[in-house]
Amino acid sequence: MELKNKRLTDDVFYAQREEALAQWPTGKDVDMEEGIAFHKALPDSKCFSKKLLAAKAKGKTLVQPRAGVALIKEHIELLTYLQDKGGADLLPTTIDSYTRLNRFENAQRGIEESIASGKSMLNGFPAVNHGVYGCRQIVDSLDTPVQIRHGTPDARLLSEIAYTGGYSSNEGGGISYNIPYAKNADLTTTIRHWQYVDRLTGIYEEAGVSINREPFGPLTGTLVPPSISHSVAIIESLLAAEQGVKNITVGYGQCGNLVQDIAAIQTLQALTDEYLQQYGYHDVQVTTVLHQWMGGFPQDEARAFAVISWGATIAALSKATKVIVKTPHEAIGIPTMEANAQGLRCTKQMISMLDDQTFTSANLETEKEIISKEVHCIVDKCFELGEGDLAVGTVRAFEAGVLDIPFAPSRANAGKLLPARDNEGAIRIFDPGKLPFTPDLLDFHKGKIAERAAAEGRAASFQMVIDDVYAISKGRLVGRPHAE
Predict the structure, then answer these.
(1) CATH number reported for the structural domain that contains residue 454 in this entry
(2) Where in the sequence is the domain holding 427, given as residue range(s)?
């Protein structure tokens, strides 16, 4: 099937559906009509999109952790603890790595080993193996909406099971769950697979069930320039809207500079709305999510709480609709549920204290203008390369290096773009690769990198990039040479 940004016909969708549901035996339990009825019987308090829209209307920021273990009973205990003791407003089900790769036989062995050992032997919840009724046990046991969070290039079966099981939000997309996660996954194929997921979401929407979709904002982590992650989020939003998705949460990974991070969240909302309106998707509701620091964390818990608090501050001052919360155990490994709840309570406390405060400055407006200009350069070029078709243009943009995600493992990604921090810690472009920026934008970035180089008494070089990657874990934002 030729890739086009066109709504899938029923014939195409249902032909794919037979293939998708046959990937694992639990697919036979998927009944879309029965799943729609299950959703309609749930209270509004368990609907992800309704809770997000209510928070946006009030200017409130909701908190959500990451969490997932192998067995149903233990997963319910973990989420219940985060709900009751951590005060989570929204809950996740982080999916295990085997399921993300559709290696369901390995996931099944992980379940069996977890039962035998009495502890989780998987790094998440194998939703496909537990099936529709396993998912429903989780949804029924909680008072809070639940989202699946994963990293799956082909999430068709996972989405079918999760939706029928009562999950009302699904993170990911054909770009954001390919380029940052996979080396050899074909981009055209993953976009097609996520068109299926979005069409499935649209069918639920048409039946009166609102399911939230959330492109994965941080991509490869903390040195991704805002315009790059924004462009991917906007593209995935437009692709989803074409398939009938009506509720979208666009995300951004905290980079560390106060002004740039606030500008990023605010422009992300505005630009996504702008492009959806421009291309005729007038009834799509957009919210935002800030991901707290996605890079290296200090091992010392007290210092880790400072990083968490900084992320909470950005979320509150930018008025993000929700924030994905980190834990004081980030540098160590999978956190205990107690540490996970501590991260939530720390974040909620900071948001509460900043609830009535706003942040304005001339620098903020300048930063918003720069981000907006860059996004227009990239997204408009994708449309141009696709001769009006965004799906085609996106594939061609990656082939040409016009859209380039730093540090991504995918062979579809040019990998020429290199970011580095400026003298105030904002993310700038050290090497633009083939980005389609105007000369004035390129000069802006070059000047910012030169300012830092002069302040540090060294030539601008790739060493700056390396230093910045490790800076936070060493207690700083900017990777200064010889810093204490």
Answers:
(1) 3.90.970.10
(2) 416-484
| Total domains present in the chain | 2
pLDDT digits over 172-219, tens only? 999 999 999 999 999 999 999 999 999 999 999 999 999 999 999 999
Q: What is the pLDDT of residues 304-321, one digit of tens each?
A: 999 999 999 999 999 999
pLDDT at 482 over 80: no
Residues 83, 331: Cα–Cα separation, whole Å: 24
Task: Write out the two tokens for 430.
Answer: 């050290």
Which residues are designated catalytic?
A: 100, 171
Beta strand pairing status for 62-64 and 322-324? parallel
Is residue 320 in some structural domain? yes
Is the overall model pTM greater than 0.70, yes or no? yes
Report how far residue 481's alpha carbon sits from residue 468's, in angstroms, rounded to the nearest whole number: 10
Non-local (6+) Cβ contacts of 176 within 8 A are 215, 216, 217, 219, 232, 233, 236
Residues sharing a CB contact under 8 Å with residue 352, sequence separation 6 or more, in sequence order: none
Task: Answer yes or no: are the C-beta atoms of 207 and 244 closer than 8 Å.
Answer: no
CB 247 within 8 A of CB 210: yes
**CA–CA separation, 208 and 391 (whole Å):** 27
Paired strand residues for 249:
287
Instruction: Tell me how far apart the alpha carbons of residues 434 and 421 are, in angstroms, rounded to a whole number.
Output: 20
CA 162 vs CA 38, 48, 200, 239, 395: distances in Å: 12, 13, 12, 21, 28
CATH number at residue 237: 3.20.20.240
CA angle 262, 267, 269 (to 5 degrees): 105
d(CA 67, CA 377): 37
85-142: pLDDT as tens digits: 999 999 999 999 999 999 999 999 999 999 999 999 999 999 999 999 999 999 999 9
